[in-house]
Automatic annotation (TrEMBL):
InterPro entries: Cupredoxin, EfeO_Cupredoxin
Lineage: Bacteria, Bacillati, Actinomycetota, Actinomycetes, Micrococcales
Domain EfeO-type cupredoxin-like: 70-134
Entry annotated with the keyword Signal: yes
Signal found in the keyword field: yes
Any matching Pfam family: Cupredoxin_1
Protein name: EfeO-type cupredoxin-like domain-containing protein
The organism of origin for this protein: Arthrobacter psychrochitiniphilus
Signal sequence segment: 1-25
Record-linked Gene3D superfamilies: Cupredoxins - blue copper proteins
Keywords: Signal
Amino acid sequence: MNTQLALKGAAALIVLLGLSGCGMAAAPENSPAAMAPMSTEMPMDGMSEAGNGMASMIHIEAGAYRDATPVAAGSTVTVMNMDTANYTLTSEDGSSFSVAVAAGAMATFKAPSKPGSYPFHSESNTSMRGVLTVR
């Protein structure tokens, strides 16, 4: 019986030692695994050009629209309001596009299907202005 107990104890020790080796060792400081993870967030510098597989994004921050880069005709444009006030993004002609964006929220709209420059403003803050260029 002591032999069985010793065998069970030895087997348990072997299993524990084997499992402790399954953990990951610390990566050296200069290895890729030790470096900071890459961000998957979208850049916050205006819009990414549409039509190349990237989303179009307009940011509202500090009571202003970020500079917009050209978008593809008919593409979906997302507006991210990083302010604490509600705004709109409304084309000057009043019919090409208009979207309300609550404080801290996002909204989307379809870019016009006809290429051109489309000036826009906010109905709640008429000093906020920008231009959407559609290619």
